[in-house]
């Protein structure tokens, strides 16, 4: 699938104010600074569509983008950002969990994970929470350009082994991306295209 058009629609903290359209939706979630907003820009081939920063905590709201006039891509704030106050962290958590629990249009989440790191409890816990709430998700490893192929493979295996050992019988779809080298977005778009077709078949107009 090619992205022909990508436009920003609305930002907010209240899931009830998200666009009231019954089109399929996908959300990028993951730790602060993992590269959610950058990947959104790479996928859409638009440099400054979503705001990015080298400092964690840049995205603070639920941001809806309309793609090809028929599906939404959502850029969410990161979790695990240490410099946000406890009260703010709670507020964040609340509106993000509300988003996931209440957004019926959400077809699948993409959990972004920095490929350089060992499996982190915060990510494994979040996967568990998604599973418990019946929210389908894929894993997207980011910043692949930062490692050589052998190290990439080793870290991905560490991750998948950890998942299989602890919580999961089967693995979700896994994507490997680099926003710097612009790799991995085609695979994600092909997957979204497939899910969009299923969505249209099960939700005819
Ligand atoms: P928050 O909005 O704070 O949650 O962060 P985010 O997950 O949206 O991260 P963002 O896209 O703002 O990127 C964070 C930093 O990582 C920026 O300096 C990006 O340039 C950098 N970055 C993102 N993706 C990649 C990548 O694939 N490779 C490299 N080398 N750097 C990346
Ligand atoms: Mg961001």
Q: What report would you give on this structure?
A:
The chain has one domain: 3-Layer(aba) Sandwich (Rossmann fold). It is 36% helix and 20% strand. It has helices at residues 36-44, 86-102, 121-132, 149-166, 185-202; strands at 6-12, 25-30, 62-67, 71-75, 106-114, 137-142, 174-176. Strand 5 (106-114), helix 3 (121-132) and strand 6 (137-142) form a beta-alpha-beta unit. It starts with 5 loop residues before the first strand and ends with a helix. The model has no long low-confidence stretch (mean pLDDT 93). The protein binds guanosine-5'-triphosphate and magnesium ion. The site of magnesium ion has 5 residues, from helix 1.
- Strand tally is 7
**Helix residue percentage:** 25-40%
CATH topology, anyone?
Rossmann fold
What does the overall shape look like? Answer: globular
- Highest-level CATH class: Alpha Beta
Q: Spell out the CATH superfamily.
A: P-loop containing nucleotide triphosphate hydrolases
Give the uncertain stretches in residue-range form.
Answer: none
What ions, cofactors and ligands are bound? guanosine-5'-triphosphate, magnesium ion
With strands numbered from the N-terminus, the spatial order across the biggest sheet is 1-3-4-2-5-6-7
Please compute the radius of gyration using only Cα atoms.
16 Å
Biggest sheet details:
7 strands, mixed
Average pLDDT rating: 93
Topology as H/E string?
Answer: EEHEEHEHEHEH
The number of helical runs is 5
Separation of the first and last Cα atoms: 22 Å
The tally of structural domains comes to: 1
């Amino acid at each position: 699938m090619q992205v022909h058009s990508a436009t920003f629609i609305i930002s907010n903290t209240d899931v009830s104010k998200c666009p009231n359209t019954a089109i399929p939706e996908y959300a990028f979630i993951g730790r602060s600074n993992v590269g959610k907003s950058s990947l959104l820009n790479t996928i859409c081939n638009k440099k400054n569509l979503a705001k990015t920063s080298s400092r964690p905590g840049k995205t603070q709201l639920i941001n809806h983008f309309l793609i090809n006039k028929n599906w939404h891509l959502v850029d969410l704030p990161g979790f695990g950002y240490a410099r946000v106050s406890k009260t703010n962290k709670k507020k964040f958590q609340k509106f993000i969990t509300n988003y996931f629990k209440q957004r019926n249009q959400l077809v699948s989440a993409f959990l972004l994970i920095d490929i350089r790191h060992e499996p982190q409890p915060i990510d494994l816990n979040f996967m568990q929470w998604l599973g418990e709430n019946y929210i389908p998700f894929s894993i997207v490893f980011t910043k692949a350009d930062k490692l050589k192929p052998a190290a990439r493979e080793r870290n991905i295996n560490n991750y998948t082994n950890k998942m299989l050992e602890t919580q999961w019988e089967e693995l979700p779809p896994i994507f490997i991306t680099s926003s710097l080298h612009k790799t991995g977005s085609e695979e994600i778009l092909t997957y979204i295209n497939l899910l969009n077709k299923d969505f249209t078949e099960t939700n005819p107009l």
